[in-house]
Amino acid sequence: MPKERPLWRGAAFRLCVLSAALLLCLQLAVRRSWCPEEKPRLPAVPASGRAVPQPRDAAAVPGRRRVTYVRSGRRGGRPGCCPPGRKTVRWHIELQPWASPTPSLNYEALRFLKYISTSQISCEHMNLSSLGGNSEAMKRPWSVCLDERFSLIHRLRNKQCRLYSLGLGSDDNQFEISMANSGCEVHRFDPSIKSAHIQEGQHLWYHRLSVDWRDPNPAIAAHKLHSNTKKLGTILNEFGHQKIDVLKADVESAEWKILENLILEDVVEQIGQLVFEVHVHWPGFEVSGNDSTVVRYWYSLLRELELKDFRLFHTYKDLSKPQMLLKKEAFNASSCYTLSWVNTRWK
Predict the structure, then answer these.
(1) What is the C-alpha separation between 107 and 326, in angstroms, rounded?
(2) Which long-range contacts link 325-330 to residues 24+ away (Cβ below 8 Å)?
(3) pLDDT tens for residues 68-87?
(4) For the whole model, what pTM was predicted?
(5) Pair 272, 243: CB distance under 8 Å
C-alpha cells in the first residue's frame, strides 16, 4: 500500500506557488505605473528638409507612388496634423474634375477659355496715369487694381510699394518704369542682363537672375540649376523682402510651372497682385499629357489661385498673336492672354 504524503508538505507547496504568483503580479503592476504605454512614434523629420517617403497602406489600390514633403514653415502646422512649426507641403496641385463625363478637349477648352475671359471682381481704377505724372501710354495691357479698398494704391502713395518683374529678354519695360516713377521699388529679374545688378534711377533695379520653373516633385530627376536660377522664395530671403505688392511675369510659357511652384511653396500668399502673360499655343515647360489633360491642368492651377483668395479682375486677349490653342486654330482662342488677379486678403 503506497505511503501517504504528510499534509503539511502539500500545503507548503501550494503556499509557495501562490506567493510566487503574487510577487509576479506585484512586479508587473509596478512596471506599468512607472512605464506608461508608449504612443506610436511619428516619422522623424530630417533637419535637411528633404523628401520623406511614406509607407504605403496595404489596403490601398496599387498606383503611382506619392512622396510627401515636410519642411519648416513660417506658419504653424494645421491643428491635429503636424507638430508646431512644421508644415506639410504638396508636390502637386489637386486637379479639378473633368468638365465632361469623359475626357474631352472640346469641353475642357470651353471651360478654360470662359474662365480666363470672365472677371471675378470689378476694379474701377487700373490706369497708373490716375496717380498723376504718368501720362505715357502702356505698350502692353499690364493692369493693376488701384481701387481704394485694396492696399496697393495706399502703398504707392506712401512710397512703400514693391514690384517684382520676371522677364526673358523683353525690351518692354514701360510698365516697370511707370511703377518706379510712381514711387514703387521695382526689381526686374532677367537672365539676359549683362551685369549682376544694375540700378537705373532711384527706384529701379535690374538683376541677372531667373526664377526656377522646374517641376519640384522629388520623384522627377533633378536638373542641374544654372547659378543664376533660384526659387522666388530664396530670392525674397536673400533680398530681405517679406512681401511683394505686385508680381509681373512675361516668361514665354514658363509661367505655368512658376505659378505652380508659388502655390505649392505658399509664396503666393506673400503677393498682393499677380499680372501674368499666359501662353496656350503649347503646354509649356515641363507640362505633359494629352491636350485635354493639359487644359484641365491649366484650369486646375487657376482654380488654386481662387482658393487662395485671388480674384481675376482684368483679362486681355491678344489679337496680335496667332489665334490658336495647343497648335489648333479652334475655339476662337488667342495664343496669348494677359491676366491680372488681386489677393483679396492682402494687407
Answers:
(1) 14
(2) 325/109, 325/113, 325/280, 325/281, 325/295, 326/105, 326/280, 326/281, 326/282, 326/283, 326/291, 326/294, 326/295, 327/281, 327/282, 330/109
(3) 222 333 333 333 334 445 45
(4) 0.72
(5) yes
